[in-house]
Design goal:
Layout: H1 2-22, E1 28-40, E2 43-45, E3 61-67, E4 86-92, E5 94-95, E6 107-117, E7 120-130, E8 138-143, E9 146-159, E10 175-187, H2 191-200, E11 205-216, H3 221-243
Antiparallel strand pairs: 1-2, 1-3, 1-11, 2-5, 3-4, 4-6, 6-7, 7-9, 8-9, 9-10, 10-11
């Protein structure tokens, strides 16, 4: 019985080691370009050819380019496995219209396959949050006669090839988080003029966005709890000092 138990224990350990060997958490930084993006009221079309509402259940996508070192980009961690020059992928168009198949408003989201990389088809990037900016999802900053528009968003990543279904993130897949910041620059315009043009649709506003995507580990619940306890301890200590 002891020998049988030992064999089972060894087999379990080997199986666990194999799963760990196959585990592939996505971590690191990549530099992205989106090409031309058309901005209209409540719409972000990452590819201008996809302008207009999309049918429900059938979102449309634009193209992103992940720049490698050969094009002056920055790739670290998992993203170093992408081609050295560049690799293309897709990014879902965004809308603030609930009747649009691209519905992705400011705040919490639950969109699967929001971002993909052609060179890594097993990576699943889901969108969970679009950060609020000064104007909808955009944070507008003016310096002199130039305006920069920044978009911030984030979500979860898993490598679908690890275990189970190849189309979803399963329990055994390594889950990490991603955050992306995209910025476009507008010359010889003020924030007020830019907002007026977008709202009134004077002319199609098209600009290229560039930025980075950062993939990082999700803190363990115990680590978050310890951090919370530490902050509480600091607050108590400061209160005691102020009382004395």
């Amino acid at each position: 019985m002891k020998n049988a138990f030992k064999k089972i224990t060894v087999a379990t350990a080997v199986a666990g080691a194999t799963l760990l060997a196959n585990a592939a958490p996505v971590l690191g930084i990549a530099t992205l370009n989106t090409g031309l993006v058309e901005i209209s009221f409540n719409e972000i079309d990452w590819s201008p050819s996809n302008a207009g509402p999309a049918p429900m259940g059938s979102p449309t996508y634009g193209t992103i380019t992940n720049l490698g070192a050969g094009l002056g980009g920055l790739n670290t961690g998992s993203f170093m496995a992408l081609p050295a020059t560049f690799s293309t992928g897709t990014i879902q168009d965004m809308s603030n219209n609930p009747l649009d198949g691209n519905y992705a408003p400011v705040g919490a989201n639950a969109i699967q396959s929001f971002l993909t990389f052609g060179a890594m088809p097993n990576w699943l990037f889901s969108l969970t949050n679009v950060a609020a900016g000064t104007e909808g999802p955009y944070s507008l900053t003016q310096v002199g006669s130039n305006v920069s528009a920044t978009l911030s968003m984030g979500g979860l990543i898993c490598d679908m090839a690890t275990l189970g279904s190849a189309l979803t993130c399963d329990v055994g897949d390594d889950l990490t988080k991603w955050n992306a910041i995209f910025t476009a620059n507008f010359a010889n315009i003020t924030i007020a003029q830019l907002i007026d043009n977008v709202i009134n649709g004077v002319t199609p506003i098209q600009r290229g966005f560039s930025g980075t995507i950062t993939a990082s580990e999700i803190p363990e619940p115990s680590s978050v709890a310890l951090l919370g306890l530490g902050l509480v301890g600091l607050a108590v200590a400061r209160r005691r000092r102020s009382v004395k």
